Amino acid sequence: MADRFYINCALAPGPVVVEGSEAHHLSAVCRLRPGDAVRLFNGDGREYSAEVSEVGRRNVVLEVRGVAAPERERPFPLEIAAPLPKGDRAQFLIEKLTELGVTTFTPLQTARSVVHPRETKIDKLERYVIEASKQCGRNVLMTVGPLTMWASFVRREGLPERRLVAHPGEPAILAGREATAGVAAAVGPEGGFTDEEVDQARAAGWATTGLGPRILRVETAAMVMALLASGKE
User: Fold this and answer.
1) 78, 79, 81, 85 alpha-carbon torsion, rounded to 10°
2) Domain boundaries in the chain?
3) Could you tell me the fold of the domain covering 78-229?
4) Which end of the chain is more exposed for a tag (fewer CB within 10 A), N or C?
5) Which run of H or E residues covers position 66?
6) pTM score, two decimals?
7) Are 66 and 103 in contact, with CB atoms under 8 Å apart?
8) CA–CA dist 200, 213 (Å, integer)
9) How many beta carbons lie within 10 A of that of residue 217, not counting itself?
10) Cα–Cα distances in Å, from 216 out to 124, 133, 139, 210?
11) Could you tell me which of 190, 80, 191, 185 has the C-alpha nearest to residue 142?
12) E-only strand ranges, 110-197
């Protein structure tokens, strides 16, 4: 199977010049040479078969040969919201949500949040999405939203009608069979949401759901919520 590369521009049959980090990855890391086959994607939902034409010191020229539209996205939108965990666990969280087909991730600011991401951090999260998409075969990038206060998020206009918030002690809810219009699901930080935050969610029409008898880390809880929202145990 040919290697996959993300190209941040419009793609169509014909030549395309690759520069920057992807050119370095093509030439120095993968050591591709003229005639080698690659696959390209740019987030538009399609996948482009291409062939290496030229390998230079600063760029690589590819020839796009064909276009395909494999179906690898879930049939309904799924937004997961959670405070970012510390260190490499944030990267793990983004990678796994991308692999699970989540369409949007919103980092939350809650009463017990321990990480407060800046704009540069969000840029890193978007890069993690690209790298995970290259690996798992997604051709539509998971959107990473801006840092959002919990009280604002639960009342945000445009959220799906089906909205779930993780809360210990509640029965688990499988949402996938009722989710044709989409699902929004939220998990709290280490220590969970405060009672006031849970009340804010309920008042805004959110349903509470348990995630089992054990205490889960943020990244694990977010993955479980993605599966619950898909109607899978």
Assistant:
1) 70
2) 3-68, 78-229
3) Alpha/beta knot (3.40.1280)
4) N
5) strand 59-68
6) 0.90
7) no
8) 24
9) 14
10) 25, 25, 30, 11
11) 80
12) 143-144, 148-149, 162-166, 183-186
CATH superfamily of 3-68: Hypothetical PUA domain-like; domain 1 (2.40.240.20)
Question: For residue 220, what is the enclosing H or E element?
Answer: helix 218-229
pLDDT tens across the length of the chain (233 residues): 468 999 999 999 999 999 888 888 888 888 889 999 999 999 999 999 999 999 988 889 999 999 999 999 988 999 999 999 988 999 999 999 999 999 999 999 999 988 877 766 888 999 999 999 999 999 999 999 999 999 999 999 999 889 999 998 777 776 555 556 799 999 999 889 999 999 999 999 999 998 888 889 999 999 999 988 766 44
| CA distances in angstroms from 115 to 102, 125, 187, listed in the order given | 22, 14, 15
Domains 3-68 and 78-229 share a fold: no
Reading phi first (left if > 0) and then psi (alpha if -120 to 50, else beta), residue 48 is in beta
| Cβ(145)–Cβ(94) below 8 Å | no
Q: Strand 47-55 and strand 59-68: pairing? A: antiparallel
Q: Which of 109, 95, 53, 103 is nearest to 75 (CA)?
A: 103
Which residues have a Cβ under 8 Å from the Cβ of 42 and sit 6 or more positions away? 6, 7, 8, 9, 10, 11
